[in-house]
Design goal:
- The protein has helices at residues 43-51, 73-79, 96-107, 114-118, 125-137, 153-166, 183-200, 211-217, 235-240, 242-249; strands spanning 3-14, 17-28, 32-36, 58-63, 66-67, 81-83, 171-175, 203-207, 220-225, 228-234.
- It is an alpha/beta fold and 253 residues long.
- It folds into two domains: 1-80 and 169-253, 3-Layer(aba) Sandwich (Rossmann fold), CATH 3.40.50.300; 94-168, no CATH class.
- It has a six-stranded mixed β-sheet, sandwiched between helices.
- 41% of the residues are buried.
- Bound molecules: adenosine-5'-triphosphate (ATP) and magnesium ion (MG).
Length: 253
Amino acid sequence: MTALLTAHGVTKMFAGITALDDVSIEVGDGEIVGLIGPNGAGKTTFFNCLLGLLKLDAGSVRFEGRELSGIPTHKRARLGIARTFQRIELFTGMTPREHFLVAERVRNGRGALWKDVLFLGRPTSAEKERAQKMLDLLGLAPVGDRSVESLSHGVGRLVEIGRALMTQPKLVLLDEPSSGLDRHETEELAETLRGVQREQGVAILLVEHDVDLVRNLVERVYVLDFGTLIASGPTSSVFADSAVRRAYLGDLV
Ligand SMILES: Nc1ncnc2c1ncn2[C@@H]1O[C@H](COP(=O)(O)OP(=O)(O)OP(=O)(O)O)[C@@H](O)[C@H]1O
Ligand SMILES: [Mg+2]
């Protein structure tokens, strides 16, 4: 396995509280890896460290062998790291297609600011084609021209994921994509993500509370608790680990 992302000894303190303590994680090219743990374990903090939104107190993050310290967030995005947010953040009044067109334009470096690109009308045929392909890939074509606020939570999640994928990342960080989704929507999400990984070869680091989704989608998983990695390995053996079951998964597994 080629390591795409290697985080080594990542440590982050907030006002004397250790939110992450010596966390080391690897994600291979095109791999789907899970990161699980209870509320407040440090999962979102870890994402923010990978993205350069937070400065590490110790440790290092390498992407395709390149040390990322000192590289600002927008440049990390250009290197191929994309993310979605724990709470959906979409532009009201815009359609899924428009979200994708804006992301495409930003990727191409046309339109310096989001507010510019919003009013840029007339996308090129290549841009339109890429947006259409993303709508098709995510099964969003039937709702591509509806305003996002008229769509369900589950569809909103897919729009967020599509927007992240439009930047053609090598790695996408998904922060609890199933939150707010019902069981059926969650199953569809798993199916869609599998398709995305198959078609685009993109690696996914998935933060999730939904045990079924993790089990369905992920071969390898890391378990964080109070900022410390307490288990890692193949999903089936981690979920079988009695300490993990007792402490974090309760009756769910
Ligand atoms: N900007 C911040 N300032 C101070 N403390 C913070 C900050 N961000 C996170 N923390 C603390 O760091 C710890 C880890 O929080 P984090 O949000 O990373 O957890 P999480 O695993 O994502 O939890 P959840 O499952 O609820 O999303 C928590 O104790 C949180 O209160
Ligand atoms: Mg979080």
